[in-house]
Amino acid sequence: MHRREVLVATAGVALARPALAQGQWPDRPVRWIVPFPPGGSTDLWARLMAEPMSAELGQPIVIDNRGGAGGLIGTEAAARATPDGYTMLFTITTHVTSPVVLRRFPYDPVADFAPIGKLGVTPLVLCASPSTQGDTLQDFVAWARGKDLSYGSYAPGSSGHAYGQMFSDEARLNMTHVAYRGEGPMLQDMLAGNVACAFHSMAASGGAIRARRIRPLALSGTRPLPSLPEVPLLQDSGFSRRFAFSGFIGLLAPARTPQPILDRASGLFRRIMENPDTRRRLLEIDTIPAYLGPAEFREDIIRSLREWTAIATELNLSVQG
Fold this sequence. Notes:
Blueprint: E1 5-10, E2 13-18, E3 30-34, H1 41-57, E4 61-65, H2 72-80, E5 87-92, H3 94-102, E6 113-121, E7 124-128, H4 137-144, E8 148-153, H5 159-170, E9 174-179, H6 183-191, E10 197-201, H7 202-210, E11 215-219, E12 249-254, H8 259-273, H9 276-284, E13 288-292, H10 294-315
Parallel strand pairs: 3-4, 3-5, 8-9, 8-10
Antiparallel strand pairs: 1-2, 5-12, 6-12, 6-13, 7-10, 7-11
């Protein structure tokens, strides 16, 4: 492998030195870009993993929240970052969904990144806001039919956006899409009753659901949530199998990051994912641990991109970023 030159500032003077070998990295804080604002599920997952990884590395991991454009802004910044191991990307399925739907490809979801590890998956919960009626999916649909309503999504081009449009179409509702810059802002608007419904992750919205401030109606994916045994799967409730689409949560580095750094980072990621305490903490926020190593995670990203492109084409799903 060719050794790369990394510019390092010392006392205001830029000095060149070879890229750090595995045993030397890191010798300063590492930055993880999260392409959504604080308070959402991606931010929570990133912080859950950053804490033990920082302890293993012996250096702080700084979470850099860069929301906007369905995750494109933060992800593009990560793709263009110096591939020296000091900038990484903690992201979710919007990594592949947003470019397809927004018709903007400021980065290549596969070629511009080196996967480090997949954390797992989580179903999205269709929730109704306090401004609506109906405690079950069928009752909500009956109440909503014929009304001019809106549904929220945590990002334009996200799976939550697609699920909302699919739900509106298949239930024969008249709902307008409202996009937010992350799940935190969307949840706040939901609690205020400003949108009728939205697809949420339990990691961010579980507290509001348990407090009965928003009502869970149905789940995407193929597996029920143990914490919501009474909430049915959409695909078991008369809706199409398109709601079975599953994505990913994981950590990536810019392409061309030196292999020794990738090896150490991926090894630590795997060790933390194998820790029973990590699995317990994930399950507590209704996240299903489903670790994949770098090669398998790359194939999973390719699969998600292929399946999502087919869904977006079928829906003619396109929005302005």
